[in-house]
Amino acid sequence: MPTSTRNSVFWRGTIDAAPFLLVVGPFAILFGIVATEAGLRVLETMAFSVLVIGGASQFAAVSLMAEDAPTLIVLATALTVNLRMAMYSASMVPYLGAAPLWKRALVSYILLDQSYAVSILKFEKEPKMTVNERLLYFCGTMVLVAPLWYVFTWVGAVVGSQIPPEYAIDFALPITFIAMVAPMLRTPAHIITAFVSVVGSLVLSVLPAGTGLLVAGVLAMIAGAQTELWMERRQKQKGVAE
C-alpha cells in the first residue's frame, strides 16, 4: 500500500473521530475528580485510566470504592460493565480477525465505545477495505482520543476540585453515548435494538452490580437479530410474489 494511501486512511479515522474530542475532555476531567474524591492519589488515578481506559467501568469502580465496597465486588462490577467490549470484539472479527496477533492485541487495548462506533460504521459502508486499511483507520480514530483521555484525567485529578459546579461537566457522559448511538440508527433492526436496550436497562436497573445492563444488552441483540430475520423473510416473500 502506498504511503500516501496509508496516511490518508489513518487521518480519515482521526477526522471522523474528532467530534468526540468535545466530550472526551470533560468526561476525563469528571473521572479525575470522582477518583480523587473516592480516595485515589493522582498516580493511582492516572494508572487506572492508562491501564483500563474504559470510562464507564472506571466510574462504576470508583463509585463503589467511595462506598467502601469489597474489592471483589468492585472488580466484578467493573468487569460486568466492560463485558460490552466482548460484544464489540465479536462484531469486529469479520473485519479485523485476519490481522496478526500483536495487532489484534493493540486493537483490544484501544477498543472503546468511540473507536468502535466510528469504525464499525466505516467498515460496513466500505466492505472492500483491506485488513491493513481497517487497522490504520481504527488506530486513527484513537490517535487523539486516547492521549486526550490521559491528559484530562490528570487535569481532573489535580485541579478538578477547583472547577465551579455551575459548569456541570457531567453532561459529557450522556452526550458521548448519544453521539455514538444516534448515527447507527439506520434500519428498523437498529431502532428496535436501541429501544429494547433502553427499556430493558430501565426495567432491570434493580438487578445488582450492573447485571441488568448486561441482560438488557443480550435482549436487545436478540430483538435486533429477530427483526433482521423477519425483514429478510419479508423480502423473500415479496420476491416470490413478484
UniProtKB/TrEMBL annotation:
Cellular localisation: Cell membrane
UniProt main location, coarse: membrane
Transmembrane segments: 20-40, 135-155, 167-185, 191-224
GO terms under cellular component: plasma membrane
Protein topology in the membrane: Multi-pass membrane protein
Tagged with keyword Transmembrane: yes
The entry's keywords: Cell membrane, Membrane, Transmembrane, Transmembrane helix, Transport
InterPro entries given in the database record: Brnchd-chn_aa_trnsp_permease
Entry's Gene Ontology BP terms: L-valine transmembrane transport
Domain of life: Bacteria
A Pfam family hit: AzlC
Family of this protein: Belongs to the AzlC family.
This protein's name: AzlC family ABC transporter permease
